[in-house]
Amino acid sequence: MATLQKIRSKGPLLLIVIGLAMLAFILGDAWKIFRPTQGVQYVGSIAGEKISAQDFQSQLEDYTEIIKFGMGVSDISEELNNQLKDEVWKTMVRDKILKEETEAIGLTVTDAEVREVIEKGTHPTLAETPFRDQNGNFDADMLKNFLSVYENLDRSAIDAQTMESYDGMYKFWLFIEKEIRNDLLGAKYVALVESSIKANSVYEQNSYENRIKRYDLLVASLPYALVSDEEANITASDIKDAYSMNKERLYNSMESRNIYYIDYEILPSQADRDALAAEMEELTAQLSEQTEDFAAFLRRNQSKQTYSEVPRSAEYLPSEVASRLDSVKLNEVCGPIYNADEDSYTSFKLIGKANGYDSIQYCIMSIQAESDEETARLSDSICQAVRSGADFDELASRYGQSGAAQWITSQEYEGASINGDNAKFLNTLNGMKKGQVESIPVSGGNLIVKVTDVRNTVAKYIVATIKRPVEFSEQTSNEAYTKLNLFVARNNSIDSLKANAEQSGFNLLYSRRFTNQQYYIGGVLKSHEALRWAFEANKGEVSRVFEAGSANDHLMVVAVEDIFEKGYTTIKQAGQTLSMEAVRNAKYGLLSSRFDGIKSFEDAASVEGAVVDTIRFCNFTNSIYVPSVMANEPLVGPSANKLANGAYTTPIKGQNCVFVAQKISDDELSVEFDAASEDYRLVTLDKNRINSQTMMNELVNLADIEDFRYKIF
Fold first, then answer.
1. Is the whole model's pTM more than 0.85, yes or no?
2. Rounded Cα gap, residues 109 and 97, in angstroms
3. Rounded CA gap, 19 and 21, in Å?
4. Are 507 and 517 in contact (CB under 8 A)?
């Protein structure tokens, strides 16, 4: 995006001056984001306020355009699109909650505070803008220059394409400014909460003592493994008690479901492969006769390889093409070539060879006068002045532009499909020598270019390539659909699916606690329809066959095994977890009784099944590893903290065993108590725990968020 700095020019800017990184964004077709499913009015609620599908959609579209502009692309992947949906939702939640919290206490961010941050230029978001100097640092003057130019633009004198780039840049900046304002507001709120964190004298003293005191212990443990699960003999009452003790751990912040699903991928048949091979023979013959407009020819025939009028290095061509370039003559056609790894066919025609640079350093300015003749005359005059030794940057500054040298590498453009003025610019640049100055006539003016340095001359090629993957036919798709549909008709219950899927050639998969925010089922793209069904179906239902996949190349069937609603999990649904806890409670009761009547630690150590470990350097805060059970036991250290030497604990229920601990020695680290230092340490620790993210998470939990965006996925 660094080349976007050229937008400081006061005259209309040619596409190439605005930046090669934006080629795809400006030249590509406008990406049309999905529209919400008809009939869906709301996508959720935040703190009791319903969020309309239209508002969410509008913000998503705006945010998507900003991201595309920042990335310099005209389209985004489905994966990135889903990330943006989450980001927009999180932003809406954050903004709503933060607004309510800050308005209630009168906390605001002023325009002056925002301007101060921009002037300093240290906010990390500013580094993502194109307003940067040669060292990559944010340049506030460059921003001011752009805003001034944008405000005074004569839109009637600027072509639509260039105006679109100006508008895109302005919207991009407004987004950055809004992010800075929100960050400042959030930082103020966090700072206000952090300022309330204090450590009293008791807290300081306890923390100090727990930190410096350490002791050695003898631990006699009875591992729960000594008692079998059957011997524990738990009852329904035990399960109920375990539920009461662990209920808060069983709270569901959102609805989830246990589902079974079949993901059946449709693969091309040999008949489909043979059909494409025959078609490629015909296309290869047509390619041999083609002499111009190769880009249109390749688009018309659905080639996956784009055509560019700018020569490409071999590394940017398909491997089956690159490996044959040296054995093919100019205007000769090669193919069809079958690539078994990609299951594709390729044919190509070598149109031209040229030497080009791997990297070029150049200076550039754009010139546009009242007429084409005046533009040409002025351009020639500037070229002559530069050739005679005039400073390029100084001349460019007279026309409101920066003429500073910049590098462009072949990696920045060789993967793109380039033609027209952009191809003319790049081909001219690659044909120039170090120190050479040229005027390049393009649409809307001339470009004055000086090459100041070059690196690595490499061989490059202009190649027209037809590359077609083998795809399944409608007949193959229909056969797969019929096969799966018949299976579902005969097996319309979960038990039947589980019993018969494998022998019928289908893989039955399982997803536990599946939520509606995962976008896909089984990671299969465009499985939204199946996902919507899964969260509208009842327990035990089996779906119809859904089409899914980026190219409708997957068929999917879903069955709902269980539904976990928002709120507390029921005893029945938490059965397995509760059973494990109830078994541990029962084993503790059985094993702890073995310590009944002990009058010394030696008595505890002699209990049947007891294992004694010596644990050194224990303290209150550390979780202690107990070798006999090969696990950490968090309660060992705290249980012995207040014991006198030689004293021992009562039987304690650990995570993996019942244990009795005896303190055999203790000492203290030679660290003097300092109230100020202890206060600073404790406050710092608490501030780290109560950071902006944890604070926002807590506010979100309190706001009672409802999220059913899946209805418009």
1. no
2. 16
3. 5
4. no
